[in-house]
Amino acid sequence: MSLFHRLKASFRALFPRRYAWPGMDISLPGGQHLHLVGSIHMGTQDMAPLPSGLLKRLRNADALVVEADISGHESPFAGLDDALPLAERLTETQLAELTRIADETGVSLYMLDTLPLWQIAMVLQATQAQRLGLRGDYGIDYQLLNAARARSLPIIELEGTDSQIALLRQLPDDGMILLDDTLTHWHTNARLLQTMIGWWLDAPPTDSKLSLPSTFSESLYDVLMNARNEAWRHTLHALPAGYYVVAVGALHLYGEGNLPSLLR
After folding, report:
1. Whole-structure pTM value
2. CA distances from residue 205 to 6, 38, 107, 117, 121 in whole angstroms, order as listed
3. Measured between alpha carbons, how far is 21 from 151 in angstroms, rounded to an integer?
4. Domain limits at 167?
5. Is residue 225 within 8 Å of residue 252, measured between CB atoms?
6. Model confidence over 198-242: pLDDT tens digits?
7. Counted domains in the chain
8. Looking at the chain, which runs of residues are DSSP E strands?
């Protein structure tokens, strides 16, 4: 990196630019200039279209980097049924709480009965988001993917859906920890979703180290956040020199062990 670019990167580190969306700029030693965007995978209608400033950055980028390309219509969850019914996999207390939330959200307990526990957690979380007015078509990464394809811009996956499903399937006890956290932190997760909506509609956070309510146990946070952030750090450092818009889940940009802090 030239002296000019080193000075420019140092200036940006001291005086980071503020955006109207959850975004920040980071330049890596290998000449990779990243605009990190805190994505929400399901969004509200007010989140479309994307801010013109963000679309301009995408037009000038060499590629869009996302966790996974979710623009296809095929379901990554096909053929993942579990053999045992829920009554044989959950305690009475867990089953009662799951039944209560299923009734509250209108989810059929019969349809959940043979799904893996981690998948039940994902279904409940998606249903909760829908009840808060969020839809996949308005998700930030989904909109960015469509904009990138319209411009024939290369798309780079940090993981891909197959790797994400493999990670969930590797959770111990059929993903009991994810379902248990989902049930335990049900209302906290709803407040966190509303907070992230506010980051896009009202004002983004100004401090990447801000304190966020915990919706994961420490062990699950290590698997779903810390380990993935570390893997993404290596992937981003391995990119060719150039300009990239990088969209990852908003929680990966803030709080303990966030991706920007690892990149810096």
Report:
1. 0.90
2. 26, 10, 33, 33, 28
3. 22
4. 3-263
5. yes
6. 999 999 988 777 777 778 889 999 999 999 999 999 999 999 999
7. 1
8. 23-27, 32-39, 63-66, 155-157, 242-249
